[in-house]
Amino acid sequence: MYLYNVQLSILFISGTLARPERRFRAAFANALGATCGIASLVYIGKSSDIFPLFDGKDWETTRNLVEDYVHLGVILIAGLPIILHPMVFFAVSLMDPGSLILCVLIGRFIKYCIVAQLAFTGSKYVKLFGSSAEKAVEQQGLKKKE
Length: 146
Known about the structure:
Elements: H1 2-18, H2 23-47, H3 60-69, H4 71-78, H5 85-91, H6 97-122, H7 126-140
Helix pairs in contact: 1-2, 1-6, 2-6, 3-4, 3-5, 4-6
């Protein structure tokens, strides 16, 4: 599952760098895709009792954020680079499905906008890493072999 996310992230960042003027459109498309998957989880969560899968101390922070802040908690968690499955199952009993799906869409859109903006603006600074390494080599008195 994590490898799949890495591949999608690489494609998203590559697409952002190739067409930076479309970065917010790409962010919305990614958020919409993630939200479609979450919509199916909401349906599963409403129609079955899977809550015991996520009982335990590992998911307490997620559960507490959802229970204490409801909509804002869902948006916050959806904006983080973590899996959303536990949050969906915690929130499905507290929120109606439409607002849960909308909050996930908003949170994921915010996340992908931030990632796209960082990829777009951060790529300008990659050249600084190379020049810093060359200066460090010069300061050490080492020369490159040609």
